[in-house]
Amino acid sequence: MAFQKPATSDTRREDAAYTFGYHFIRYCRDQAVDNLPKDMNPDDREKAIESIHIALHNVMDLVEGFWKLESGENNYIEYHLQVVAKDKDHNEIERVNIAPGLDLPIGFWKWAKDGEYR
Hints:
The chain is of the alpha+beta class. The protein has one domain (11-114). It contains 3 helices and 4 strands; from the N terminus they run ααββββα. The chain has helices spanning 12-34, 42-64, 104-114, and strands spanning 69-70, 76-77, 81-86, 92-99. The strands form 2 sheets. A two-stranded antiparallel ribbon has the order 1-2. A two-stranded antiparallel ribbon has the order 3-4. A hairpin with a 5-residue loop joins β1 and β2 (76-77).
């Protein structure tokens, strides 16, 4: 999965989010699914995969600000997610904010169910 600069900056956040989605599915969802017992009956396996999807989808809700996350009596917190591109010498090339604001929970279902990422 290459993270290349597109022709227009309007699509930059979406391209960065799809790059994140590729890695999120590959290193989080796929590894969790691959760790399920090979001898599970199909119904239990389907339920386990759905549970994995719910948990990972909730991570997307968390970084999108779906819930108000209280931190003390008068404060709340937000989590932000960025894609940081670096060259092979670890020098930062670019930072792209992808959450909150890009609706990653909707993107998650495209990535997880449809395999739709670039």
